[in-house]
User: Fold this.
Amino acid sequence: MAKAKTSLTAVERRAEELDTIAAVLPIERRDELAELLTDQDIETLRHLVNQGMGDNTLRALTSDLAYLEAWGMAATGQSLLWPAPEALLLKFVAHHLWDPQRREMDPDHGMPADVDDSLRQQGFLKSIGPHAPATVRRRLANWSTLTKWRGLDGTFASPALKSAIRLAVRAVPRTRRRKSAKAITGDVLAKLLATCATDSLRDLRDRAILMVAFASGGRRRSEVAGLRREQLSVEPPIDVQGGPPLPSLAIHLGRTKITTGEEDEVVYLTGRPVEALHDWLAAAKIDKGSVFRGIGRWGTVSKRALDPQSVNAIIKQRVEMAGLEPREFSAHGLRSGYLTEAANRGIPLPEAMEQSCHRSVQQASNYYNSATRRTGRAARLLP
Assistant:
C-alpha cells in the first residue's frame, strides 16, 4: 500500500510540474502524460521551455516524446533508455516502416500485434499500416534533439540506422499526401461562410476564424488558436476609389514556425475580415487575452483559448454543414487555398508569400493545386 501511495504522489507531482508548462502541452492529455513521462522527461521539457524554444516546436517534441515513451514501454516493457542503443533505434524503424504485402505472409513482420494494440488503446495509433517515412524521420530527429538536450550522445547518425531507413522507404514507396486533400479556395470559403449566417456566438466566432485565417495568408491552426488580443493593432483605414474607407488591422505574429525569437512577423487584414473579427470580439466581450475561445452549451464564452485540434474540428464541421465531404478538407486547406486563390487571381507569388510568410518559393509553390497547373498557361504552350 505504501508503494502504491508513493507512486500516486509521484504522478501527482509530475502533473503539477506539467501545469507550469501547460502552454506547450496538449491540455486534454496532461494527466495521461503525467503517468507516461518520467521525472527526467519533464525536467527536459521544462529546460526547453526556459530556453525559449517556439511553442509549436515544443508541442511537437512533447507529442513525440510521449509517443516514444509509450512505444518503448509497449515494445520493451520499460521506459526509454537514454541514450538509446542502436538496436532500439533499429527496432523502432522495423516497427514503423514495413511492407504490408510481406505482413500478409509473415505476421511477425512489422509492429507486433501486442505493441500495436497497446498504442491503439492509449490513442497513439489510429490509422492502419506502416507510418509515413516523414513521420518516422521527424520522431527520430526529435529523439535525437531530446538526447542532446540531456547532455548525451546518441547513435542517430549511425550507418546502420541510415541504411535501414533508406532500404525500408525504397521497399515500400509511398505517395506523399497533402495535409488537406483539397484547398479551401474562395468559392469553397464562400460556402463555409454561408453556414455562419446568424448573429449567434458560434456563427460569429467561426465566421471570424474562417475569414481571419484565410485573409491573413492562410494561417496555421496553431497560430489561429494561439492568437491573442495583444497581437492586434488598428491601422489607418484604406481608401478605396468609389467607396468608403476599409478598416485595416495588423496582426503581430511574433515568433512563428520559420522565424526566430528576435523577429516579429506582421500580416495585415483589410475590410470584411476586420469587421468579422470586431463583431466576434464585441459580442464575446473580449478585450484581452485569447481571441478565439470555446463556447459552452449555454453560450458561455470560456476564458481558455481553443486548442489547434478544435480549430480543425470547426473547419470540418462547417465543411459538413456546407454539404461538402469533411474528409477532403482540413484547417490546412485554408493555407493551401490562400495561395491557390492568389494564383487564380493573378497575384504574383512573391506578393502572396509576403502575406503567407513563406520563405521558400519551392515550398510555397507546392501548395498550388494540380488543377491550377493543369489549366494554366504553362500547360498550354502547344494548343
The longest helix spans residues 55-76. Residues 55 and 85 are 29 Å apart (CA to CA). The chain has two domains: 2-171, 186-379. The longest strand covers residues 243-254.
